[in-house]
Protein 1
Amino acid sequence: MLGVMDNTDLFICIDHVGLAVPDLDEAIKFHAEVFGWRELHREINEEQGVAEAMLGTGEQGEENAKIQLLAPLRDDSAIGKFLGKSGPGIQQLAYRVRDIDEASRVLRERGMRLLFPEPKRGTAGSRINFVHPKDARGVLLELVEPATDAAH
Ligand code: MC0
């Protein structure tokens, strides 16, 4: 079928869905005890102002989408502001790409504003950028190019 498993596709798949949470440890416990999700990876990203955890199941491979829990390190961070304005909930939808520079170029050409002039460092050494939620029709879209030896 046209476009399926085609290297010219802009996106590979949904990489993760990011949820803003006020308290990372409490949220990991909740998602584990109620929904059975397991913690696969955890890190602090000072630049983004977040403490984050990737959740998945024991069986899933890299091809499956994860749940990302995002807790603010500071009130004036992106997640801190989101929690202040909207409360806990879905903050972002992340699409995986092969080449973030090329995907960003194509999206800019199609009129999308990317939030950073150049990709920044994301989870597990990935390269990330975001499409402005106003351009993506109300959804903050993250682009993720995984590190070649990605461990999450
Ligand atoms: C804001 N808006 C959103 C939104 N955040 N709409 C959907 N989803 C969101 N998450 C809407 C607001 O309601 C508002 O609409 C308009 O966008 C402008 O919002 P604002 O309140 O003026 O703007 P700010 O100051 O809150 O900034 C929003 C913006 C910011 C998206 C620019 O959050 C940002 O730079 N985000 C990118 C970085 C980020 O999210 N980092 C944390 C995740 P109205 O209609 O009221 O005008 S780091 C991460 O995810 C890494 C670790 C990883 O995955 O590897």
Protein 2
Amino acid sequence: MDFDVKDQGLAGKGLLRIEWAAQSMPVLRSIKERFAVEKPLKGVRMAACLHVTTETATLAQTLKSGGAEVCICASNPLSTQDDVAASLVVNDGIPVFAIKGEDKDTYYRHIHAALASLPQITMDDGADLVTTLHSERKELLPGILGGTEETTTGVIRLRSMAEKGVLQYPIIAVNDADTKHLFDNRYGTGQSTLDGIIRSTNRLLAGSNFVVSGYGWCGRGVAMRASGMGARVIVTEIDPLRALEAVMDGYQVMTMAAAAPLGDFFCTLTGDIHVLRKEHFEAMRDGAIVCNSGHFNVEIDLDSLSQMAVNRREMRDFVEEFTLPNGRHLYVLGEGRLINLAAAEGHPSSVMDMSFANQALCSEHMVRHAASLKNQVYRVPTVIDREIAKLKLASMGIPVDVLTDEQEKYLHSWEMGT
Ligand code: ADE
């Protein structure tokens, strides 16, 4: 078996951490048990380009239980948990191509290695696997049944491919399921982003000015949790509706130009490029901490910051100091890569339980229905979304009310009014 991981000797540690994560993933566990009996993915070759974490390992084991032949590569150069990668290889016999801190060439070599497994289903997080397949391994396209996409940024890229007529097979946008983005993007990113900031800096949030750029589901989660830690949250947005929502959620909303001289912490979650750039760095306070929790490391213009800097030092793991000509120091966390996975462990398992239950069930759906689907980006079927919500509630021991016959009838009637 071909693979590329940092150190197989880490497998023992990875095994225990995977078991720890799996304990908080009851929905995925129930799917795994059914998959083991029904084998809905029997013999299907799958290439998964995901953050290689304990939760991803649990998903990979679930797919393997369903009969799939899974091959994994990293979806980000800094997010791999090397012990998990080792355990998947050693204890599960799953080929993994991922090393934390890999350079860009290695990152793409790993994507190519996963494609060399001749996948029939792709599972992507950010769409680098799919775009590499469509640009550099086009000859593999006829063998692909379909794919799934985990994240907002990836879905945006894939919709753009579909609109331009480039996309050559159907994709299910797992991100758009309610049981995914309402929980993973909001509560997962909220907690894990603060975890990454706190682990890397050990700075106090209480009483600080915390600037959140982008008020999508991820931004909402980070703002909520930073506020809960006692920070004064400032939101920057380009969308008037979202800006209005942030105002009514109780935050200060202003332009980045206005926020730059105020912030103690800056966190970008917009999915767009150069949200923090030269004019903002020039205005920031001495000691300002800058990080990104969006998918790609494009939100902070690090090239400009590097050009401006008169000195650079690594202060501690994942914290780099840039000294500016005005004598001020700015601190960039995790090379501007998603801080929740670079400096922490990503979203907690219990929220990834729902995201990855969507991945597992959408893979099954894709294998069953690919032939009747067009080369488009599809929503997660509502039955899957609702089933996952039901299973999650059941796993929490939380029953919910059911409609009485009278209520059911009322909801379908139009006659009764004032
Ligand atoms: N994305 C965010 N958190 C994650 C995690 N824990 N595992 C895999 N992908 C993630």
